[in-house]
Amino acid sequence: MNQWKRVLISLFVMLFSLILDGVIAFYGGGVLNTATGIMVPRLTVLALVVLGNHLQAPMFYYLAIFFGFIYDSYYVGFFGIYTVGFFVIAYVFHHFWMKTYSSGIIYTLAGLLAIVMIEIFAFAIYHVLDITQWTLQEFIIFRLGATLVFNGVMMALFGWMLDRLMKKVSDPHSPY
Amino acid sequence: MRNFFSNKKMISLLMTVIAFITILSVSYNRTGEAPFVQQVSNDITSVFSRAVAAPLRFFDRIFGVVDNLHDTYSENQRLKAELDDIVRTQAENSALRAENADLQEQLELKSTLTDYQSISGTVIARNPDLWLDQIIIDRGERDGVTIGMSVMSDNGLVGRVTEVNPTSSKVVLLTTADQKATQTSAEITTESGIVYGVVTDFDDIRKELVMERITSEKEIKEGEEVVTSGLGGVVPRGLLIGTVSEVTYDKYGLSQRVYIDPAADFDQIRYVLVINREAEYYNDETEAGEE
User: Fold this and answer.
1) Which phi and psi angles does A175 have, rounded to 5°?
2) Positive or negative: CA dihedral B91, B93, B95, B98
3) I need a labelling partner for B166 at 20 to 30 A (CA). Which of A14, A115, B34, B204 fits?
4) What is the nearest CA distance from A20 to chain B, expressed in angstroms?
């Protein structure tokens, strides 16, 4: 029963973060695109990192692939980048959580690592497809830095909340 | 070799890479309608997106109203000053419209390059990864939207429709990094005549559009309006793109290069007009058939 609850809540959290990414990019257009750099909201990736600590292996991978597919379909228009990117993140962080403990700082650092991975992967693919002419230096200076700051703050603010929610669902008698 | 292929993880990895490259290349090179699964998935996601965006839109409207109230007095003074000029322009416009209709009738023209119909829509989301600067609007196939239609906001051209689902559509903006997707034929009416060119790029640092492939040597001045020329076949003529902010030469020093200050604010696109050109574009096969 708890397993199904966890899966349903995970589905809802992933869908909500995926939509929120688009809505933040839409309403915060002028704010996120600053002179110092572009901040890219990656709440879906952050949610995936936290959920990796609470879901079982095959189900977690299916969830990652499913939402990667939705992300590609709804936002990008062609398939592959986020379907594979989310799966790789899920695989890495599922193993990561088996080898370490979770805390607010670890969640934030893990979130930043995931953002670096997905950003570099997406940049590499877009570069190969000749969609962007940015150099690696430009990408790091104008995009990656600001994106890490924005998502680091988001993870510090909301990561622990999602963690507590998942702990509560897993164990209703949990002190959280 | 035998050990290599007996390694399950290695085979899974290779299969994943092959599947990734295949899916990416097939879907990236796809033209025309999106597959059924994608249409369904996009429309379902857009329903949730609308639900999340609705309260935000409400607050955005309230803040907009407060902001507008703040500017009301100064705007009122400016509008009063412009009113006399508008009355004169309106009279001139109606005379020209009547004259235009007479000439069209005499020439038996059904529709011209400037004729179009519009479909109004609301933006519900924007591609967060920003490599492909795309927005999602709440108008789709059921509302008459088709691939290739131009999209305007704030009286300025912002992009074109690249994907149509039954109740939502994807619009690629002129600011997107993928400039192959957004090239638009444009014209500038100068004092010495019309200058044609193509809007090819968006300068991220200057936040301005770039117009190139200008073959004419006619003098282009700052402040002159840049509009669509209608020569591309899909976009109607006369849609405002922006105004000339600087004129330079290309890297070879052969042709003029124009920086355009866009008429639309690409960071604040809330509502859009999807433009459906009425005039049919020239078709070799039709022409040959008629002959």
Assistant:
1) -65, -15
2) negative
3) A14
4) 8
Any idea what the Cα angle at residue B252 is, between residues B186 and B198, rounded to 5°?
A: 10
Compute CA distances A31 → A36, B216, B263, whole Å: 11, 40, 20
C-alpha atoms less than 13 angstroms from C-alpha of B89 in its C-beta half-sphere: 5
Give ipTM to 2 decimals.
0.86
CB-based contact A53:A13 (threshold 8 Å): no
Q: With an 8 Å Cβ cutoff, is B48 touching chain A?
A: yes
pLDDT digit string, tens, across residues A15-33: 999 999 998 988 887 677 7
Query: How much of chain A is helix, strand and coil, in % rounded to 5?
Result: 80, 0, 20
Are B132 and A133 a contacting pair at CB < 8 A? no
Q: Are B112 and A7 in contact (CB under 8 A)?
A: no
Tokens 């990236």 label which residue?
B28
Cβ of A33 within 8 Å of Cβ of B177? The answer is no
d(CA A101, CA A95): 12
Using DSSP, state whether B158 is helix, strand or coil.
strand
Question: Residue A33's closest chain B neighbor by CA?
Answer: B267
Nearest-angstrom CA–CA distance, B86 and A144: 49
Is A67's Cβ below 8 Å from some Cβ in B? no
Cα-based angle B27, B40, B164 (whole degrees, multiple of 5): 65
Q: Is the pLDDT of residue B287 over 50?
A: no
Picking from A77, A96, A93, the residue whose alpha carbon sits closest to that of residue A45 is: A93
Distance, in Å, from the CA atom of B291 to the CA atom of B141, rounded to the nearest integer, reads 34
